[in-house]
């Protein structure tokens, strides 16, 4: 069974950015999970996921941007049902309580009374974890500034007309230029995230959703000039479109456009196929040659700042792991997993 995973959030230069509200709106029923660190939120969702997949129901995984091995959410498209970790920094509350959104509190599985003796340690670790993120944000903001300088340095040598022509060629090749009447729905997702190990790109998701892919090779941040016309054409043609931005520029640097209903993707710098477009071919060689040393220096500075951000994320993750370890002995995981199993069966009874 092909696995579809993605991120809804990013640690970005402007702080924490999340698209979870758009995602939550797309389901018939949403279980909003509430609980503390190490309280079994991801474990609960994994338990539901395994039961659904054993019954042949594919699930969509929403991965945590800071810890991609953990779930922030789980979607079951065949049931129109989703589960979401509705605690900060992506806190969520019911919009239509009972009719659509349901609280799923897990705090009752924690022996809070026995944690009183751990109060000082919990405070210290919680405060230390939160204090790490302003430093991460400053590193990412500095990296974004350098990236912008690199972009500005080559922009006057870029042939925007030729980039637009390259986009028009891909649109015509895929038959996206014919309007389909009703406009298509656009969904915001991230296919990559920076954590303590660097950038993690979810290539398996691209392969699962898009057997056919056009790869755009891009070094200087020019892929949006190709992808933006494709996005406009695809939505005008009535297609469901996933728009995926760069976590370093989560509101304007478009990196991937996926059309799952066509099994078609336009992906920047990934996919293992020969590139359909090399954006470097649309830059005046004289401009590149004249600024090569400067561009190389800027690239190294940006990479160093991003690596520093990853190291800080690794430190923050270590603090959070210590915090979760304090809670784990006081969580009734037997009761929690039994609850997940019972809910999974109720969902299956209704659906099947």
Q: Which properties best describe this structure?
A:
6-stranded mixed β-sheet, single chain, 16 strands, alpha/beta
Describe the model.
This protein has a six-stranded mixed β-sheet with strand order 1-5-6-7-4-8. Strands 9-13-14-15-12-16 form a six-stranded mixed β-sheet, with helices on both faces. Helix 4 runs parallel beside helix 6. It folds into two domains: 4-110 and 332-351, no CATH class; 158-283, no CATH class. The protein is 43% helix and 23% strand. With 352 residues, the protein is an alpha/beta fold. The mean pLDDT is 93. The relative contact order is 0.18. It has helices at 20-24, 41-54, 119-155, 160-173, 203-209, 223-236, 285-290, 292-327, 333-351; strands at residues 4-7, 9-12, 15-18, 29-34, 60-63, 71-76, 81-85, 101-105, 186-189, 192-195, 198-201, 212-217, 241-246, 249-259, 264-268, 275-278. Strand 14 (249-259) and strand 15 (264-268) form a beta hairpin. The protein is built from nine helices and 16 strands.
